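assembly run, all chains below
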Amino acid sequence: MGLPFIEVKDLVKYFPLRKGFWGRRIEFVRAVDSVSFSIHSGETFGLVGESGCGKSTVGNLILGLLSPDKGKILYKGRDIKGQQDRKSKKVRRNIQVVFQDPQSSLDPRMLIKKTVGYPLEINKLAKGAEIIERVKILLAEVGLKEEHMYRYPHEFSGGQRQRISIARALSTAPEFVVFDEPTSSLDVSVQAQILNLIKELQQRNNYSYLFISHNLSVVKHISHRVAVMYLGLIVESAPKNILFDRPLHPYTQALLGSIPLPDPTRRQPFAVLEGDVPSPVNIPSGCRFHPRCPKRLEQCDRLSPPYKEVEEGHWVACLLC
Amino acid sequence: MQEFLLEIKDLSVRFFTNQGIVEALESVNIGIGRGEILGLVGESGCGKSVLARSILRLIHDPPGKIIAGQVLFKGEDILKASKKRLQQIRGNNISMIFQEPMTSLNPVFTVGNQMREVVQLHQRLSSEKAQETCVRMLEQVKIPDPEKILDRYPHELSGGMRQRVMIAMELSCQPDLLIADEPTTALDVTIQAQVLTVLSDLTRRNRTSLLFITHDLGVVAQLCDRVAVMYAGEIVEEAPVLDIFSSAQHPYTQGLLHAIPLLHEERETLSVIPGIVPGLIKPPGGCRFHPRCLKRFHPCDRGIPKLSQVNSGHHVACHLYAEG
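ok done. output:
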């Protein structure tokens, strides 16, 4: 497979939280706590987890929107962690993003022409009439029409706005795109359109994707490999068919068992987990999942399980494996 | 003919706004049997919440107005009930849970305070008895340490806990019908599983009818007995849950079912319903789905299709199946 396209090594990000009298006591939200994975060229890597597990923070760290406290982010073997100077701009334009809510990620006062063409302008990739030409091509590529250039975001539906966000992300001809819950705010029929578009674009242009979502069915549909996050850690990762057919971590099993299947002939009681997700400020000792784990052993509250490869490409962090 | 607990007949609702008249519901007919779980599915803006709110007359007037139809509860028209009678029906006979429990719970009172008020008001219990009832209800929704939770404020509870408190509160007066408007949409899957389990156990045990509104076809498949599919303010198909998933007849329902990514089946590309959901200020004439329909033919843009029976208990509003 050669050198991974993006490699993340032991990434750590804590957010300080001031508490107590005049904020003298400092606690930390341990949003991302030693996360490692790699993404190959032309591959979609899915990152799933419940709200607050740190999956979006991982995305923002790779994008350089946050700088990590520890760890490395290697882009084609080169460390790009925390580089926000002019030199890194060249690298950064190869890494683009599509956010969840197109309503808030598009400037309401910018014409679509400007929104989609702006990355070209600031990266000095095109000028004047050339920008217009490129915007036309980009809009066509995401299934919008030429006349849409002269409209504002509020004139579009949610699905169309998400298409505009995708066009903007593709404007600098990136090699890698982070999708942070791109279809969560869309209806099913529109979600299908956007998912098909994302897949098509990859097949056409060999993009690599990091696809972040809480919806396991969507992640399974779009990804080649999937990692499951829980409280700032990846607990299991594997090629999608292995992960969905033979999940090993009890948390992955519970997640899969809680999805309501759209098939009334396969009714089954949900695999119900006890309790709520603990706060990332007070992380349980040992295995972070042990207070809710139906299969916990005696030593689970003391030992943190190592993240190890149990079969080719299948990594699990659980003492049972 | 099945005896319905609640029957909605030709209900039409309009919103009179500055932009124009929103035709939110267009002669909707639906019934819910005793102890039945009816799922109401549709995409955002199709009018499913408006339908739920109309049942308890919770539509704000202005701008909303129920312009025609009846909502018959055990034969009595709720739309014509006096204010006093309506107050009795709300809570005692029909109660409702909303999507976001934080907006339904009052942030400045403890959970116990609010729960006791409900039982005391509707059942005229003494405060000790009310306390006992509340503890018992919280136990039923599987909340650990119910006494402690009663002294907490809503913001101290997690989303799943709050939704369970709401379920406990709404079921405390043993209503005949519970309306749940997307109760698990804001929750994570593992928490959704907890809440759905509690909700279906309790309603089945007490033979409470449940009108469950959602956009998640998975939840419908796992929970409901019968399903009604809404599109642009109209019910387009209504059938027992097995029939909807095995032999959907309306092109919209078929499109919806094929558009969801599945966990246990590989779909290379998802089939797509072209276009977008129309606005309800000037909805398309004829069948409201016709501009997006793959099977449209000549009468579709003119005649409004009526719900007609295609199989026992299976009704579809589509010109493809019109009689004659």
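The first strand of chain B starts at residue 4 and ends at 17.

Chain B has a mean pLDDT of 90.

not gonna interpret more than that til we talk
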